Amino acid sequence: MNNIYLDYAATTPVDERVITAMQPYFNIRFGNPSSLHQFGQQAETALDLSRREMAGYLGAMPSELIFTSSGSESDNLALRGTAFASREKTGANHLLVSPIEHPAVLATARQLADLHGFDVTYIPVDEFGMVSPTMVQTNLRDDTALVSVMHANNEIGTLNPIAEIGQLCRDRGIPFHSDAVQSAAHFPLDVNDLKVDLMALGAHKFYGPKGVGALYVRSGIDLIPMLTGGSQELGLRAATQNTPLIVGMAKAFKLVQVDHNARTNHIRPLRDHLINQVLSLIPSSQLTGHPETRLPNHASFVFEDADGNLLISVLDAAGFACSSGSACKTGDPEPSLLLTHLNYSLSWAMGSLRVTLGKDTTSDDIDAFLEILPGCIQQVRELKS
Amino acid sequence: MSGGVDSSVSAALLKEQGYDVIGVMLRLWSDSDSQNRCCAPDAQAEARHIAGLLEFPFYVIDAQDQFYQAVVLPFIDGYAQGITPNPCLNCNRLIRWDFLLERAAALGAKYLATGHYARIQQTPTEHYQLLKSRDLQKDQSYVLHVLTQKSLSQTIFPLANLSKSQVRKLAGEYSLPVAERPDSQDLCFVGQGDYRDFLRKTDPSINKPGPILNPESKIIGEHPGLADFTIGQRKGLRISSPESLYVIRKDIDQNALIVGNKEHLGRTEFFADQVNWIAGVPPQDPIQATIKIRYKSPETPGTITALKGHSVQIQLESPLPDITPGQAAVFYQNDICLGGGIIRSD
Ligand SMILES: Cc1ncc(COP(=O)(O)O)c(C=O)c1O
Fold this sequence. Notes:
The complex is a heterodimer. By secondary structure, chain A is of the alpha/beta class. Helices cover 44% and strands 13% of the residues of chain A. Chain A has helices at 16-22, 24-27, 38-58, 71-90, 103-116, 133-139, 162-172, 191-194, 243-281, 308-317, 337-341, 346-349, 363-384; strands at 4-5, 65-68, 94-97, 119-122, 144-148, 176-179, 198-202, 213-217, 285-287, 298-303, 320-321, 352-356. Chain B has 3 domains: 1-115 and 158-203, HUPs (Rossmann fold); 208-264, SH3 type barrels (Roll); 267-343, Translation factors (Elongation Factor Tu (Ef-tu), domain 3). In chain B, strands 11-14-13-12-15-16 form a 6-stranded antiparallel barrel. Chain B has a 4-stranded mixed β-sheet with strand order 8-7-10-9. A two-stranded parallel sheet of chain B has the order 1-2.
């Protein structure tokens, strides 16, 4: 298959250098990091180095970084862990979350509300899906256990003013979590600049392996573990650490820090060209998300009266892998919750398209894509009427 | 693709013949929360699995609205008019061909292939003929008689020359799972219960109790609803009578079920409408053919005369007891399916 991949927000290919770094930890340095012997010690060293290195880039202490199995798990642990710990400690019972969070946060908040009696408030957002610090301030309560606002939205790319929101929370002494799964691929993230108390990362969005993530937990933030058992990860997550994947994540994270400027300088102009061309070539099209304050690789659109699901299939058959907020493999398209929340009418919300670029995307790729996209959209629109 | 053995083997054969295969499953409408049998999660998972094994792309295309409009509503409406509709015919013509062919074209496909048991033959005059399957037990030309020259020109039946047992054997050779969706009598879009429950739930006014009359219009009982009965039916009348009684007619205006004994039942002459001639045009003169009035019934010889406006008059050589308005009458000359139409209410 030589289709062109334009879905880097979904996942990315693992960098060759990352694969090389991981390799020995599958079968040569395969020990259990908790074991006393030298096999264990080798693995423990790798784990330790990975933690120090990642923590260093984040401006955190190594003891503030917990390795998990995914971005989703990190979000889960952040929400459940602090919600239950705060309730235990202070009786705090309120969660303040943005309504445009990834399902890893939204569904967790919903479960905390439905099964555990937490009171959840959704922070109003503007037309670009951006959370304003004022709205956070208005909705903060004395019994707020946690505020969760994502750094960059996966579906529409909008970036949130995390540092300002973090400052507000800090002033009130309320823990603040941010899902930085999407943004980690593009920006250096310093937990002190961002003023976050918890922050979720997932390796597969930044050219690392799937099935591994991390959660930053500021020292002094109480967390109840969700996975109980051994005392790995400072007692906050039981289970033998997945050394090869963690080594891979640390390597990939390091490469982001080294390369992100060059990557962004390459990707952003391609992305800008893509957005301009799409909006000018295709009638009844709109950009979703913020026009400037957005991920540098991210373009997302809605097209009126086009079936987004069919569009993704048609584009795929034509050789281009993209995604859409409403696309679903099972043929049961629903308008994306986010676009509905942003008040897009059904005839627009059903026709969404997300095109996300990566370090290997070329201008030829974008030209080829722009060549076929107008025809594909026209075809899909004709099939709708 | 259905995830079943027929479409899976079809895909494998095409792949082997060097075609660029794209797998498609249609997401069809279904009653309430139940999933349409054609695209239930397990069927989808199976089709996806097969596409993965054979390494070709697979998409599910949403056809729920169109299916509801083109298949379900006419089905309900047909019962409201007292006929016994066959929704598979509309589904084949409007959804599985017209709708899907358009989308297949958008996906870049030149042909539509299905796992039906039937054959397509091109004549020297560039016409396409629809032929019965070589496996007469499995032949599906009855439900395919709605296809047009244009559809046939873009259709491939990879199982054309195979029998069911050969298909099963091939599945084994290709290491494909040989799951088989049970050949259910129930309709794919009806969830719990059968079509009668579905009709009751959908529109209670369609199926309400009324009188049972004898051929002399004397009331001899009460029926629970006309849709529960079909022509020739004997069971479920709940009338004691010295001889067996059969449904011979439905009178929709009086909501009455007319019953009689066996002699009242047989007919030799009837009409069919919405006729599709596979050749594209009706024959000038009356033709001799064999006629099939239900999917699983044997053929009966007769004469077909084309009338104005896509209708025909059919004269059978011997009477048939169960000529049912709403079902299709399909015409054959030996292996060739000439076309067919919908049996008219009298
Ligand atoms: C913003 C955001 N949060 C969380 C996740 C979940 O990450 P993972 O796939 O590692 O569980 C994703 C990726 O889908 C994401 O985009």
